Amino acid sequence: MQKPWLFGTILLLISAMLFSCATSLPIDDEKTGAIRYWKEDSKILAHKAMTVSDEQLADKDVPKRADPKILILMYHNLVYGRTGSEYNRDIYNFEHDLAFIRSRFKVIDFQDLLAVKAGTLKLESDAALLTFDDGDLSMYAIAYPLLKEYGIKATFFLITNFVGDIGYMNWPQIREMSEYRDEAGNKLFTIGSHGTSHRYLGDLNQDAVTKELADSKEAIEKNTDEPADILVLPFGSGTGKQEIIEVAKNIGYKALRTSDNRFVAASAIDPYRLPGIYIDNSSTDKAMQKIWSMIGR
């Protein structure tokens, strides 16, 4: 009489042996080239969390410009593999985006942008801000470790009622990102508001808008112990609507990002109508060259 459990046990033992052999093999960096997925101190693989070459990672002088342009880039979900959804950006192209951006732009955050507006910070080159909408879990799982590796600033905009839901970051993860400092003690990551429930603000009355913006700001500040004074309009709804701008100002927001697909000149910043250039799932060659030509480069 056959014993199915015995056959299954044998298969498991063989699989374990094969896995043990595979993971104990030395990794030849010369053969693997730039295909590196995990940091060298990983317990699983001795590969860095990068898929770009060392030459691309090398620091380069960012091109100077007399009248710098500022790009605010808008990302949503990141994924490990190829994707058909335009809202998803795969890790391979995202990493190459980062290599492109850091070699051609000064990466700043919204506090830097407001300092440029106030005249206390002078830009000598084009600048870019990286923003991530919605609070998808991939922000913590993919964007966060890669941005740390590159030392790149970014702002994450949360739909606060979605925090902790399946597929979204939870508060401990968000707090970890907010508290992170690089080796020099610089804060890289800022948490901003995308409303409480991702509603079209332009369709709501003033009381509903006030609740959306006030409750989300309060939730973020309570859970991060950091000010949440940057707002992104869900769907770009309400862009330029003075009633919404006044509510945002009164609640304490210092800047408001829209979905306007354009750049802003450093000499013409309107903090309450900042543009946002959506990065879709096209290749880095196409997406980054598009924004490079957009600013006249």
Protein traits:
297 residues; alpha/beta; TIM Barrel; two-stranded parallel sheet
Structure, explained:
The protein has helices at 4-24, 29-32, 54-57, 91-104, 110-118, 138-150, 171-179, 206-224, 242-251, 284-294; strands at residues 69-75, 77-79, 88-90, 106-107, 127-134, 154-158, 189-193, 230-232, 255-257, 264-265, 277-278. Helix 4 (91-104) runs parallel beside helix 6 (138-150) and helix 8 (206-224) packs parallel to helix 9 (242-251). Strands 1, 4, 5, 6, 7, 10 and 11 form a seven-stranded mixed sheet that branches. It has a two-stranded parallel ribbon with strand order 2-3. Strands 8-9 form a two-stranded parallel ribbon. It has 297 residues and is an alpha/beta fold. The chain is globular and about 50 Å long. Strand 4 (106-107), helix 5 (110-118) and strand 5 (127-134) form a beta-alpha-beta unit.
Count of domains = 2
Contiguous low-pLDDT stretches (5 residues minimum) are 9-47
In total, how many beta strands? 11
Class from helix and strand fractions: alpha/beta
The helix content is 25-40%
For the termini, the CA-CA separation is 76 Å
Amount of beta strand? 5-15%
Q: Residue-averaged pLDDT, rounded?
A: 85
Number of helices: 10
The CATH architecture name of the largest domain reads Alpha-Beta Barrel
* CATH hierarchy, class of the largest domain: Alpha Beta
Tell me the CATH superfamily of the largest domain.
Glycoside hydrolase/deacetylase
Cα-based radius of gyration, to the nearest Å: 22 Å
Specify the biggest β-sheet: 7 strands, mixed
CATH topology of the largest domain: TIM Barrel
Give the overall silhouette: globular
